[in-house]
Amino acid sequence: MPYCATPEELVCQRETLDEILACWRSAPTPSGSGSCSMDFSYAEIAEMCGCSKVFVCQSITGVRKKFFKFFGKTY
Fold first, then answer.
1. Predicted TM-score (pTM) of this structure
2. What are the Cα distances from residue 43, in Å, to 14, 22, 63?
3. Which of 9, 40, 51, 53 gives 5 a disulfide partner, CB atoms 3.0 to 4.6 angstroms apart?
4. How far apart are CA 55 and CA 52, in angstroms?
5. Which helix (H) or strand (E) holds 8?
6. pLDDT in tens, 25-56
């Protein structure tokens, strides 16, 4: 029989997802796009967004700091 999450587990999963998305939305993004992929280098993202590679790096660093601060972990 396949695993079926309990209602409590589903609520916890949804709350965790909401927290992650809230943290992600609060992070700075190049030109407000909010879109980034691990398939691209910082230089490629900068070119696509019309900003500097330094800004992309700082934005990603900011996201990481907010994420780990929010979830109480170190990196």
1. 0.50
2. 34, 26, 18
3. 9
4. 5
5. helix 7-25
6. 666 555 545 444 457 788 888 888 899 999 98
